[in-house]
Specification:
Elements (H helix, E strand, L loop, with lengths): L1 E11 L6 E2 L5 E10 L22 E12 L3 E10 L8 E8 L2
Parallel strand pairs: 1-2
Antiparallel strand pairs: 1-3, 3-4, 4-5, 5-6
Length: 100
């Protein structure tokens, strides 16, 4: 698995956020992901192919916004494009995760 992210803190403490709003830190993110899974019985073909049922790496890219809620929950909204599912197009999603 490989992940690349570029984060911009919009709100937060004065040293890290563009706007001084420390009780609700928010950041905007652009990202690119690559993942690969295999087992003892299969072979992996390291090529970029969008229309295959072979075991190839999967790629996605997108943007997201993350907010730190009360210092212990991360609320994230994302808009991502999975390259190996070209018929499905872009996807919206939301996650709520612990902040530690």
């Amino acid at each position: 698995m490989f992940n690349f992210e570029f984060r911009v803190p919009i709100t937060g403490v004065s040293q890290f956020g563009l706007l001084n709003l420390p009780f609700l830190p928010i950041e905007l993110v652009t990202f690119a992901d690559v993942g690969l899974a295999w087992d003892d019985f299969g072979t992996v073909d390291l090529r970029f192919d969008r229309q295959t049922t072979d075991r190839v790496p999967v790629f996605s890219t997108g943007v997201s916004a993350r907010a730190n809620l009360l210092g212990f929950l991360i609320l994230e909204s994302y808009y991502a494009y999975p390259f190996q599912r070209p018929d499905k197009g872009w996807h919206w999603g939301f996650t709520l995760a612990p902040g530690w």
